[in-house]
Amino acid sequence: MSQGRIIIVSGPSGVGKGTILRTVMQQRESLHYSVSATSRPMRPEDREGVSYYFVSRERFEEMIAAGELLEHACYAGNYYGTPLRPVEEALARGESVVLEIDVQGALQVMQRRPDAISVFIAPPSYAELKRRLAGRGDTPPDIAARRLHIALEECRQAKHYQYTIINDSVGHAVQELEAVLTAEACRTSYRPLNLKEED
Ligand SMILES: Nc1nc2c(ncn2[C@@H]2O[C@H](COP(=O)(O)OP(=O)(O)O)[C@@H](O)[C@H]2O)c(=O)[nH]1
Ligand SMILES: Nc1ncnc2c1ncn2[C@@H]1O[C@H](COP(=O)(O)OP(=O)(O)O)[C@@H](O)[C@H]1O
């Protein structure tokens, strides 16, 4: 059985992470998408247990104290974190686990799990990022402005990631992420060659 890996995917709000990952997840059934916990309010299209586990700030703080999270961060005034147990269970089954998380959380995972694959999704330009965030129509202008401000700092942190993919077109970005996953799966250290004379 091949070994499961953690795959960190980060990038500014509205860059297209969800759009790209939906396609890649459909193409690769052995990937497990980690559903995060968050204290942010639900959006109309959100589904409990699918987009996130929506919890109160108090419950989130309990999860931190109990060591239930692999990583956590405060992003734009709300908590976000990765429940540890489902990640460990998926890895134990030999599945690779996708973490769609912000830069602060990603840096924690890179420290704790140095074998994680890290991918930063970048916008082709700031103006295009602004258009996409506004175009999604679910983020009020004041919150969008805050997220765009955070985006500038996030892009400066892209240097900490192993790979950067510019999401100019979805098709192209999906192809590049596929290429990264294929190349990583072929790396010798993750592919023990148990060649035997009798085979
Ligand atoms: N550290 C951390 N960040 C997360 C987690 N889940 C989501 N995020 C990040 O939190 C940020 C805001 O997410 P969200 O409110 O869903 O906005 P969206 O990315 O614009 O749809 C994004 O950068 C997400 O990648 C998590 O479990 N941990
Ligand atoms: N390459 C692209 N070109 C144009 N629009 C895009 C592209 N990728 C994503 N989008 C659009 O941008 C918006 C934000 O994408 P989304 O996947 O929700 O971003 P994120 O998950 O990073 O917040 C959506 O309306 C999506 O359809």
TrEMBL record:
Q: Where is the Guanylate kinase-like domain?
A: 4-182
Write out the annotated subcellular location: Cytoplasm
Which catalysed reactions does the entry list for this protein? GMP + ATP = GDP + ADP
Tell me the domain of life.
Answer: Bacteria
**Cited SMART domains:** GuKc (SM00072)
Pfam short name (any one): Guanylate_kin
What GO molecular function annotations does the UniProt record carry, in alphabetical order? GMP kinase activity
Binding residues annotated for ATP, in chain numbering: 11-18
Q: Which PROSITE patterns match?
A: GUANYLATE_KINASE_1, GUANYLATE_KINASE_2
Q: Keyword Nucleotide-binding, does the record have it?
A: yes
Keyword field: ATP-binding, Cytoplasm, Kinase, Nucleotide-binding, Transferase
Q: Give the EC number(s) under which this enzyme is classified.
A: 2.7.4.8
Query: Where is it predominantly found?
Result: cytoplasm
InterPro entries from the entry? GK/Ca_channel_bsu (IPR008145), Guanylate_kin-like_dom (IPR008144), Guanylate_kinase (IPR017665), Guanylate_kinase_CS (IPR020590), P-loop_NTPase (IPR027417)
In terms of NCBIfam families, this protein maps to:
guanyl_kin
Similarity comment: family membership: Belongs to the guanylate kinase family.
* Role of this protein: Essential for recycling GMP and indirectly, cGMP.
What name does UniProt use for this protein? Answer: Guanylate kinase
